[in-house]
Amino acid sequence: MTHTLMDLPFDESALEPYISKETLQYHHGKHHAGYINKLNTLIKDTKYEDLSLEEIVKTSDNAIFNNAAQVFNHNFYFNGMSKKISAPSKDLLELFINDFGSFEAFKEFFLEAAEGFFGSGWLWLSIDDSGSLVLESFSNAGNPLLSDHTPLMTCDVWEHAYYIDNRNARAVYLDKWWGLINWNFVSQNLQALKQKRLS
Ligand code: FE2
How much is the average pLDDT of 47-52? Predict the structure, then answer.
């Protein structure tokens, strides 16, 4: 199976002035595409060739894992952003209140963790086995599939996500990114998990 680069769910200039067209051209068109190309080269004629992306992430290691996970992570990241204003669903808001005290407390907790994260990696909001929200950070290509949690949203804190627009000012990028979160996507991920656990 050949993996293909997802289309962005918006135009390259749609997130301006928060995230520039140039950043997306590099981030999606060069970095994300590069991981796909490398993955396809690496899995050719191996046992991973016919597996789904998630199956590869869960069963591989080293270079194949790094490239497969980076494809999965970037798919999640780009699908999780929109310039359209949205809000967390009632169910998600209830979880923020139960598990973090309030939505504002969650925001502060998430952004502080993302700003303070050392090096390149990903911040994730996930659901654990007990149905609680968990904030997880992973270096390099890590993601919640490794901890058997269900991912709801992610923020890319590799410098390539923000260097063109903000140089090394990660906090400035995070502030802009927060305003672009597609809460419909995050809420739908929670809803899908609920339905799966009920079925
Ligand atoms: Fe990235």
Answer: 97
